[in-house]
User: Fold this.
Amino acid sequence: MSATSAPPSGKFGSRIGFILAAAGSAIGLGNIWRFPYTTGEYGGAAFVLVYLGFVVLIGVPVLLAELSIGRASGKNPVGAFRELDPGTGKGWTWVGGLGVVTGFGILSFYSVIAGWTLSYLGRALSGTFASTVSPEESGRIFGEIISSPLETVGMAAAFLLLTAVVVRGGVSGGIERASKVLMPVFFVILVVLAARALTLPGGGEGLRFLFSPDFSKLSGEAVMSALGQALFSLSLGMGAMITYGSYLEKKEGLGMAGVSVAVFDTGIAILAGLIIFPALFSVGAKPSAGPGLVFVAMPAIFHSMPLGQAFGAAFYALLAVAALTSTISLLEVVVAYFVGERGWKRERAVWAVTGACLLLAIPSALSQGAVDGLGKFAFEQSFLDLMNIIFGNVSLSLGALLIALFAGWRWGAQKALDEMNGLPLGGVWALAIKVLCPIAIGGVMIYILVTGNFF
Ligand code: PFF
Assistant:
């Protein structure tokens, strides 16, 4: 959560402004909503270890590659590949195009989940959770929210509107300044909630689930999901960090900035795990509940702590802000494309993209109980889950693979390293981006294609 992006001609005012914006893009529902439920679905600690491995071995190198591509070109993802390609750039602009489409796709389902946080905020404020004890009861409230067409579509629309208003203004000193306060507040609230969750009776079981690995549970699908989660959580594989890198001053070194973003982001995900799993196990709920997990588990914690209602309201408010700084970066990628490549006015691009995205968000919003046919849309998955897998996993993985190949081989690792201004262990980065990332990402993708065990 944090500062928004600059307009195409703008630059981040300071190094910390940039780190906050990039961390703001990275930290979001991916950490608090997606990480716990994916970990729950794939059996816990073994999944977490693979995820952490991907963050270090693939996430950090690709993050640095995206930032260098962005800053060296000063352009949106499509323009960036054209600018830096030593050839005509025709072939590689498609990688940027894939990123723009992916950003649009992610924004469409992400805003639905973000809308749920608004619904929960309203209920927390009105005291609905004060009397909620059992997971059944909070599950019932969750079901009520997601199966109401008016509420889910309405809240997704409200969230998209909020995002559009910020992105329309370009750099928002307000959000940037507010984030410098809100980010630490969010962190403190998470720590307090973790302290409460960890002392709940039976919470130790949750820790074991999170930290003691059982590798027999690790399927190919789990490995693919861990890769998708690492990329999703760090906002990689679709050009968000290329776009943010393009707004960064030339003099800034990229190494520390990139590593700080990865450390913040991963730390917040683990912290979320430390809250959710002890809470779940203490009330005897199942970790494999799917996308509703966090929404069903959290009220149990608020109920069992002093000032629970106030904590609940603060938690959902800050989660909504965290989601907002991520949706800003998603919308910014698509808008930067229309402004930079198609010559559209920023205002027009923002409203056209937001409107189109709302249309695509509707089937996702209605797929969680409001309209039956969308609940099992294809491959036994709901429309929302399908969007999540296609754009949030497969497409990001493909994007990251192509970005690594471009940075390592086509543009050239040395040029990227020059752009980073003295990266310590530059040789290790070059090896990772040229060899390790393509083999690991390509390997996971080929395995999934061959075994077909993805859906
Ligand atoms: N990283 C965000 C999260 O974890 O919530 C989601 C996201 C934002 C993914 C921006 C991709 C992106 F470009």
Confidence is low (pLDDT under 50) at residues 1-9. The chain has one domain: 15-451.
